[in-house]
Amino acid sequence: MCHDRISLLCRILILTAVFLLIPAGNLSAGEQNDWRVGAGLELFPSLLAADIDIAGKSGSDGRLLLVLVCPDRKDRAEEAALELKKIGQIRGIPIRIELTQDTAFKEYEHTKAAGIFLISPLGDEFESLVRYGRAHQTIVFSPFEGDVERGASGGILISDRILPYLNMESLRLSKIRIKPFFLRIAEQYE
């Protein structure tokens, strides 16, 4: 437990240092999105590990299904999948990663995902993912500005540092319980 806290704090400090060294004004919109995806990938596993009920979200194969939603950036999604595969497990539970372009999430209607991560910003299709997350007690993580306010369970908040950003109403509606330590360090949108 203490190791998890130290690991999360180290990730936040490293992300903050990198953010301060890169002047955002010099990045194109695509580069900013890629940077946000990279920062989000650092925090996503920690948010999943903070889900009190994560152990009950493994599939019949005993693994946690993490779905990367990539309607237009398959190359970036494949890179992200490789990055996530390096962690191998969350709280001792092995992970399985799938990529999908199905923003309506219809192919997962009868499948339980432990977490959903957006690789690129979505328009109106975003609502389908939020509905799925709430119906299936699944964390929907978007690193893109404004998505936590639109209903994503979690994301990142960039100010003078990078913090986990949680939508408390979405978590409540999804019946997702987060460990108190994570709640103390995260920014919360009510």
Primary descriptors:
three-stranded mixed β-sheet, 8 strands, Rossmann fold, 7 helices, 190 residues, five-stranded mixed β-sheet, alpha/beta
Mind explaining what this structure looks like?
The chain is α/β, with parallel strands linked by helices and 190 residues long. It has a single domain, classed as Response regulator (Rossmann fold). It contains seven helices and eight strands. The strands form two sheets. A five-stranded mixed β-sheet has the order 2-3-1-4-5, sandwiched between helices. A three-stranded mixed β-sheet has the order 6-7-8.
What's the structural blueprint in terms of helices and strands?
Layout: H1 2-21, H2 29-50, E1 64-69, H3 74-85, E2 89-90, E3 93-100, E4 115-118, H4 126-136, E5 139-141, H5 147-150, E6 154-158, E7 162-167, H6 168-173, H7 180-185, E8 187-189
Parallel strand pairs: 1-3, 1-4, 4-5, 7-8
Antiparallel strand pairs: 2-3, 6-7
Helix pairs in contact: 1-2, 2-3
Helix content: 40-55%
Strand segment tally: 8
- Into how many domains do the coordinates divide? 1
What name goes with the CATH superfamily? Response regulator
Strand order of the largest sheet: 2-3-1-4-5
Structural class: alpha/beta
CATH topology: Rossmann fold
Write down the overall mean pLDDT.
89
Alpha carbon gap, first and last residue: 27 Å
